[in-house]
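QA checklist item 7 of 12: single-chain prediction sanity check.
[x] sequence parsed
[x] length recorded as 628
[x] structure emitted
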Amino acid sequence: MKLNHTQETREAQVRLLYEQLPYALLATILNALILTAVLWRQVSGSLLVGWLLAIVLVTGSRYASGRAYLRTPSANAESRRWGRHYLYGVASNGVLWGFGGFFFFTANSYVHQVFLAYVLMGMVSGAISTLAPVRGAYLVFLIPALFPYAARLLSAGSEVHLAMASMLFIYVTMMGMISHRLHTTVAESLRLRFDNLDLLHDLTKAKDRVERANEELAAQVAEKHSAQDALQKACEELERRVKERTAELAKSEEALRIADRRKDEFLAMLSHELRNPLAPIRNALQLMHRPNVPDSLVKRSREIIDRQFDHLTRLVDDLLDVSRIVHGKISLQETVFEIATVVNQAVEGSSPFIEARHQELCVHVPEEPLWVKGDIVRLDQVISNLLNNAAKYSDTGRRIGLDVDASDQWITIRVQDSGVGIPKDALPYVFELFAQADHSLGRTHGGLGIGLTLVKRLVEMHGGRAEAHSEGPGHGSEFLVHLPRQKAPVTERYVSPGGAAVVSEEVLRVLVVDDNHDAVETLALLMRLEGHNVAVAFDGVNALAEAAKFQPQVVLLDIGMPGMDGYQVAHELRAREPKRSMVILALTGYGQPEDRARAEAAGFTGHLTKPVPPELLFAALRAHSAER
């Protein structure tokens, strides 16, 4: 009979916490001492000493609690109470580290800011294995430990600090997901262990019954044989079940090891890929700050910053897309269009990267119109990812092929390259999240290993499938995307967004509203360079007052502002002008579908997600102004 081992599982989870406690406390003391030594000349000595003493007191209290738990015979029976005591200690430790992240933030030293972030993220990464056994324990430490430091990054307000804050929030999200996976694996392993104990107990009882039966039936030879046969079958069945459960436990343990290894590999790659663009940005900014720098060098520095900023933006967008797809929060804007339309768009977008590597792109699309149903933006992303992947993994001067074929039911897009190829053992995992064939320090190709995952997931959302083929290293790769073929629609063809656009050269009165002064200043300057009259405001109350005096035709409005947020400002502006002639565009970092719906309900004319390319903003401004 299978028993419910909820209580035993809880007791085992709490015991795991306390058994690993000494190592966590030792790491806490060592990291606190190192941080105090490094920041001694940067932060008030009394503040550092007081914080260190608090760390020591909390650590000592937690150590004493751990010793008491291990010495108490009835500790398992009181697992809930001991579990709460442990969480109190974890929360106290997280608050102290959050205090350090907030008050030890050195505004005049980027090196010490980065070192502080390194220590905090190291503590959070190390805690994941010790706190995973109990659900929620990891978040009790992670949130108070990192969010104060994130608040300081946001309050600093520079592009680098905002980029670091964005990366920190992505890091927090990914660590939360990994912690949840680890907790699930640990809980399942404990459940299987107790189930195996039940099976062993059943097997022992069965053997006892066999021995008693043999003693009782010693005189009855014929009956004894039949009884032995029946009991032998029962034993074999029980042993088979034990082997099955043991195999399941081994698989769970292997899955845990693989998950832990992939976590480490991904964190290393994420750190590498996010730090790499920051180095040239920092160097370019340092060069621009020097006196008497030639205009040519300033222009080149700006180009470097733009290029690296675009790279960072693509990394963040890919991470967000993966997160949305995994959690089912992405929706497709489906239309019926010719496959040639999206192929041409993808080729146009990827050509600069391919041409920069002096590679040859050969495209073949049948003259016959081939129709598909889907989201043209997402399918553009699929083909662009495959083309960029082929270019990245091919040497300079190589050929890349893009062919489109069709059958009665399917349209097939084939991307071929003669690059580095894919090892046979890595081919089955090429579409898995964070999977890369090369994790060495000397690898020549960057990336997080999520581009092909996006390809597979997006294609499957369109009812298709993706395949990868390679003869091995040095023999190139071939990727196939199969999409359901559609009949030609009766309605008009899809028109590319780059087609006919309404252009208005009207000089407009533009009100720029944002609590970030740098954002307001730069955006206002861009608007003035376009010839528009511009007024600015830095909060919701002043925005309403300025709108009453300035009577703007266009309002560029941030959402997340202290006090009166952008939704309230838009609602009040609409209440003042019932004809809705004013164009109100949201410029915000909130870009989820529910954010767009809320903006529309509040009275916004349009919704643009930061960072907004200037050409996109100008195009939206012209289009909405023409409609007005």
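[x] summary fact logged: Residues 221-289 form the longest helix (69 residues).
[ ] second reviewer sign-off
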